[in-house]
Amino acid sequence: MNTIQLGLKENWKQFSILVIINAFVGGMIGLERSVLPQLAEKDFGISSKTAVFSFIIAFGITKAVCNYFTGKLANLIGRKNLLVIGWVFALPVPFILIYADNWNWVILANILLGINQGLAWSMAVIMKIDLVGSQKRGLAVGINEFAGYVSVGIVAFLTGYIANTYGVRPYPFYLGIGFSIMGLLLSILFVKDTRLHVGQESTQSTIPLLKNIFLNTSFTHKSLSGITQAGLVNNLNDGMVWGLLPILLLNKGFSQTNIGILTAIYPMVWGLSQLFTGKLSDVYSKKMLLFGGMLFQGIAIVALIKANSFETFGLIGTLLGLGTALVYPTFINAIADYTHPSQRAESLGTFRFWRDLGYAAGALLTGILADYFGIEMSILLIGILTIISSLVILVRVGKPFTI
């Protein structure tokens, strides 16, 4: 007898475990959000913005490549197995960051962290989508991203506070030791694979198969490629905010505690809002949510140029978080609209490859622009690029099932 059922209510226990695990995944990113750019300048004496951003570039490239292969291997190796492997790679990260005496060790830690995020975050979101089916896909993604990014924000604040009170090292990174151990144990002991749920959904799907999943998702399918380019630009500007905002705030004389608060507002709002925007993407035009969210981000980024006060930076972080929340669950929900369940993991892996390559592109581009033209020009150009991306969505994204 077939006992596999799709739905959030029917699979709430597994779904809840995966939510908790993704909170730990997000916590590993939060470790670095407010501390590493300061660590580069204070402990290692690195002043070049391009060199400071090298840890984000290493992270972004590694996570992007892992995203692609994770999607491609999900059906072959198994979703649970990939999740466990991802946590194994996370275990050394906090220890390397604590004891690193050379910036190359920090880059190595971020390569390992990129593998962890590419495997663990990808599997957490894909398994949730597998469990709930098509009707509440946006809600599932929203809850997943809520857990991950609220954790990023909380841990970014905590590490900023700890760094201000006890120093940049080693105490902020002790949190990561706990996150990695708990994430690994939960994944081994309590998570069950969801491949049978995919098989159940595949028998009901009428979505046509893609001929070449990577090429279609990246370039030739108008809607899929329109969504994918926006994902890349979204993380490109996030890479800029991640690397540049702490330095910008430090240059304006903010304390480490206030830097921790201000760098936490953006991911906190982003995470909290996805509880609502994820559900919104189930019932409202995904195209218009993507357009509005990218436009919102672009305007908020440009506004950073004139910001000086704590309140202004806090407001901009809130607006940027709202804009990102509109697009983040919608990206994944929209990609799934155009892909057959049997191809969904690989198509999402391809999308996430390009999206997270944006981290590296954003950090590299921002670093070069900031070094040669100044921080304000760097921010302006990234903001304009984000606005252009919103217009591409209007032109390319159409109705489901059209190529």
From TrEMBL:
- What are the UniProt keywords, alphabetically? Cell membrane, Membrane, Transmembrane, Transmembrane helix, Transport
**Membrane disposition:** Multi-pass membrane protein
Instruction: Kindly give the Gene3D superfamilies that the UniProt entry links to this protein.
Output: MFS general substrate transporter like domains (1.20.1250.20)
Q: Where do the TM regions start and end?
A: 12-31, 51-70, 82-100, 106-126, 146-167, 173-191, 288-307, 313-336, 379-397
Q: Where does it localize?
A: Cell membrane
Q: Please state every residue range assigned to the domain named Major facilitator superfamily (MFS) profile.
A: 15-401
- Key word Transmembrane present in the record? yes
Q: Do you know which InterPro entries this protein is assigned to?
A: MFS, MFS_dom, MFS_trans_sf, MFS_Transporters
Which protein are we looking at? MFS transporter
Organism from which the protein derives: Flectobacillus roseus
